[in-house]
Amino acid sequence: MPTHVHKRVPKSPACGRRGPPRPSRALLGPRAQRSHPHLGLGLRSLPLRGTRASLPRPRASPSLAPPLAAPCPAHGPHPIPTSLRPSLLPASPTAPGPRPPGLALSPAKPGARRAPPRLLLSRGSLDAGSAWSARQRRGGAVWRLWRAAGRGRGEVAGAVLVTGGDSCRAVPMLRFPTCFPSFRVVGEKQLPQEIIFLVWSPKRDLIALANTAGEVLLHRLASFHRVWSFPPNENTGKEVTCLAWRPDGKLLAFALADTKKIVLCDVEKPESLHSFSVEAPVSCMHWMEVTVESSVLTSFYNAEDESNLLLPKLPTLPKNYSNTSKIFSEENSDEIIKLLGDVRLNILVLGGSSGFIELYAYGMFKIARVTGIAGTCLALCLSSDLKSLSVVTEVSTSGASEVSYFQLETNLLYSFLPEVTRMARKFTHISALLQYINLSLTCMCEAWEEILMQMDSRLTKFVQEKNTTTSVQDEFMHLLLWGKASAELQTLLMNQLTVKGLKKLGQSIESSYSSIQKLVISHLQSGSESLLYHLSELKGMASWKQKYEPLGLDAAGIEDAITAVGSFILKANELLQVIDSSMKNFKAFFRWLYVAMLRMTEDHVLPELNKMTQKDITFVAEFLTEHFNEAPDLYNRKGKYFNVERVGQYLKDEDDDLVSPPNTEGNQWYDFLQNSSYLKESPLLFPYYPRKSLHFVKRRMENIIDQCLQKPADVIGKSMNQAICIPLYRDTRSEDSTRRLFKFPFLWNNKTSNLHYLLFTILEDSLYKMCILRRHTDISQSVSNGLIAIKFGSFTYATTEKVRRRLDEQCSAIPTRTMHFEKHWRLLESMKAQYVAGNGFRKVSCVLSSNLRHVRVFEMDIDDEWELDESSDEEEEAGNKPVKIKEEVLSESETENQQAGAAAFAPEIVIKVEKLDPELDS
């Protein structure tokens, strides 16, 4: 409740009222009038009588209010009440101790219509015995603020006396707490699993978490509500090592150590959009967007991709398969565009052990592999202008580890940025199409059922158990010609295969073959033709040697990739022929055998089933001759004598030859090619592999494409030369023994000024000492290095000219000046912090407790609730500028005295600043 001045003052005879005129309102500005959870603001009228003040709703237009300290019409300004005079002290701008922000009034210009006084309210406490002044930028008027105290009653909390030299009025205020919370808690959550990573989205109020169980979680800022959860599985992995957001916030990348995979996940749904394997476990990631602008890039960004006009849209994959990626199975979804996102180039940088560093365009295809860096990557950052790459590594030797900073030149990427962008988009299209072909082939494997192998296993068992010397082929031929079966064959058909089982087997084969045939025609061939188109365009780019030869594009390697895709298309067509032939023969065979089994059981046979033409009998005879021959060699290889089902062998992921390759005897075109020495070795014809499976040809195609596109990554990676190497410090303590609040070392890139910043701690010196290293992204502009060491109120400056010595072996101090920031700290209640993750875009921070399960979210920018909107109609007419509290910069001699005085007040953070090296700003 508000507290006011209770002492009654003498009556004014001229005015016929007690004391000074009652103010109609206290103006706090549009923002400050809003209610705040800490102060309960929203006051409109503050009476000076002994009664308590009422708090009606604020009005929307403060400019229509009368002045707060309006003088009496008859006698002018009222005098200061005698009961309050003893508590007034003169203002002293240099008074010792911290100067909390107080209240400030903006007087109207002489001769202008009197504007209502404006109160500037911010955090802080006004104590009796102290006075504070705020200077107006223009006009020179000084307004003093005092804390009021009643006669004989001591200090009166909440009453502030305001004077402008010509009038003095007491303004009742609400009670101020001694220290306002600087950051507001907006969410808190107790999680079931221990959290190991927290990363905020760069564009949305979302935060990605990874726990020890291998889950990747997405939470929203509001009440820390969980959006979705990506559980661990065998295909991806269970040990998450790092997280990274795409710059537009639409994709989330996370690395897994157990499978050495990188997974790109959609922010809308917990679905894996793309994944690829790497050579080493990834320890850190950085996803950046290129900000370089040029006329060539602008025209490329605005131009429509020709592939969207010339190629048909890829058919969506069926949804009834477990391994199908949702990105290729949703209706009305442009899967390639969804993967690419924005046309502007963005690069995902990966770092791991043994100097493993790779760059992936659009987070999908590798465009560079960096070599020559030793140790495990702790942090890395690629500049947005593509001029340099900063890396922090750790090399462990004999129980200690040495941390070093490297800066590598990436001028090749910067110089050929338009070409790199075009090439990267083609690489990404090719990578997405390879994924589409893989998923199509996976769906085909799922469509093929194990039930189709029952005929082979039953016939093999029949051969092992039969006592006759006749072959299985002879047994079935005897049944076809004479309509009678031996006792052994009848037992096989009636007891093991059964009429019901035969009918189910025939339906399964027909359904399975139809699904596989549809997948080959609609999806496998469509994806292969699109892949052939993009490789042909890439070959045309490689022919422009002036532009693309420095990047490592090789036309001969791309030609080999095109040939491999052609061979894959030929093998897919061969599979279609086998499916068509098998469906025709199986249909005739099962129809004949079904009627024969019905006659054995003396069941009624439908008239339409009895109709068998001579052509049908020929199909059955050919089927028995081709598929029912006993093969002892096959039994030694596969454990069976027969291979009746011929489609499954094409879908086996094996290097062995086909069990039953297609019969090419009598094929006139095949004989013509084999007999022609010119056409046999012609590069215009795609090679044919008749004894290999579809999976084998697909793997061969992928390997050739990878080798073709690997050369640019090697060339660009070798062009990244090490320009700077700075040994930072030596750490003899283990990682587990040191609890760190932030992830150090930490690298980031300032896109505006093109600077690299490195934040790290020298652990041997102090856990509470942080160092900031600044480097230009352009190596040629770096004349000297700037280093700032921060140690709770003191900055230490050092140079890194002697790069052979570690930074922890160098120390030199420079004079500093102190500034006080009272609102940039927050005392955590009932919580021991372990890790902090901040979001500069949303201005929020997430604090993880030491038990790794308790999360608390703070809003960092609640100052808008307290800052005044200094502009008003009256001030604009009078030409006055808003009054702002100016932070006084103390002299060097006063630093120690101010720090001593600050200890008597509420806790605060004291930060010292220093002038940076001017050469770094060049």
TrEMBL record:
In which residue ranges is the amino acid composition biased (Low complexity)? 38-63
Q: Give me the stretches of Basic residues compositional bias.
A: 1-10
- Region (Disordered) location: 1-116, 868-902
Report the record's Gene Ontology biological process terms.
anaphase-promoting complex-dependent catabolic process; cell division
Domain Anaphase-promoting complex subunit 4 C-terminal half WD40 span(s) in chain numbering: 802-859
Biochemical pathway? Protein modification; protein ubiquitination
Which residue intervals are annotated with compositional bias (Acidic residues) in the record?
A: 868-877
Q: Which Pfam families match?
A: ANAPC4, ANAPC4_WD40, WD40_APC4_C-half
Q: Does the keyword Thylakoid apply?
A: no
Residue intervals of the Anaphase-promoting complex subunit 4 long domain:
405-603
Protein name, please?
Anaphase-promoting complex subunit 4
* Organism expressing this protein natively: Macaca mulatta
Q: What is the lineage of its organism?
A: Eukaryota, Metazoa, Chordata, Craniata, Vertebrata
| Gene that this sequence comes from | ANAPC4
